[in-house]
Amino acid sequence: MWNKLAGIIVEEPNTFGLNNPFLVQGSRLQPKVTPSPVSGPAHLHRLAGKCFSLTESTYKYEFCPFHNITQHEQSFRWNAYSGILGIWQEWEIANNTFTGMWMRDGDTCGTRNRETKVILLCSTSSKLARVSEPSTCVYSLTFETPLVCHPHSLLVYPTLTEKLQREWDEAEQARYDSVITDQGYNNLLRDIFEDAGLLKSQRVKVNMPEAEANSDSHNSLQKCKEASIYIYTKV
Question: Name one Pfam family in it (predicted).
């Protein structure tokens, strides 16, 4: 019966995937964290507040850009699975390009939380095209939209403020002049992207005595002159 639904794509109101009709009201999904603010290319912000559905086999997937991804088993079994595959957190960036959206902190899956990488591809309409699970508890989702068809639609530099663009320019010059290493350059870029709200912050502010003891942890040309520094730690 449910196989007849395979491949159906539907754009739905912004219920954010938490409205599985097969769950009783008290069993609705409970997100672990709050989604990050909307960020990235301004022309993609119009996707916020919308949801896109895809039914494959016996599962319905709902992708709500800048909010979450959910999975609902289309079954009347008393214990039909319904869960969160990830909540919007940050962009994946490489070579001045937004290469994906990361949805993390989904439902518990063994010793980890479920997470999903969303890949954006050009198409004539906005739709959730494919969902796969390349490794346990890590999902890959392909979202097609005409909003990324322009060759410059996913460039990072134009989305930054003038101040952050200047910092990037200074970092480029510092690397060219061999003032900083490639690793230092990458740290500077991460600092810039975090300040822009494109990446989740991995910085912890420390007091002045600790800052003096860890002066090598400075990763910004301007922040080296400040009274406090940021030390990168693994989230």
Answer: PRKCSH
pLDDT in tens, 112-147: 999 999 999 999 999 999 999 999 999 999 999 999
Distance (Å) of CA 60 to CA 26, 63, 118, 133, 214: 20, 10, 16, 14, 50
> Please, what's the b/e burial string for 219-235 (b: 16 or more CB within 10 A of its CB; e: otherwise)?
bbbeeeeeeebbbeeee
pLDDT at 235 over 50: no
What's the CATH architecture for 42-154? Answer: Distorted Sandwich (2.70)
CA distances from 67 to 8, 73, 119, 203 (A): 22, 20, 15, 23
State the average pLDDT over residues 212-234: 43
Instruction: Please state whether beta strands 115-122 and 138-145 pair in parallel, antiparallel, or not at all (unpaired).
Output: parallel
pLDDT in tens, 21-35: 444 433 467 888 999
Q: How far apart are CA 167 and CA 223, in angstroms?
A: 11
What are the C-alpha distances in Å from 57 to residues 12, 62, 126, 147, 193?
A: 19, 14, 21, 28, 39
CA pair distance 50, 126, nearest whole angstrom:
11
Which residues neighbour 76 within 8 Å (Cβ) at sequence distance 6 or greater? Answer: 22
pTM score: 0.76
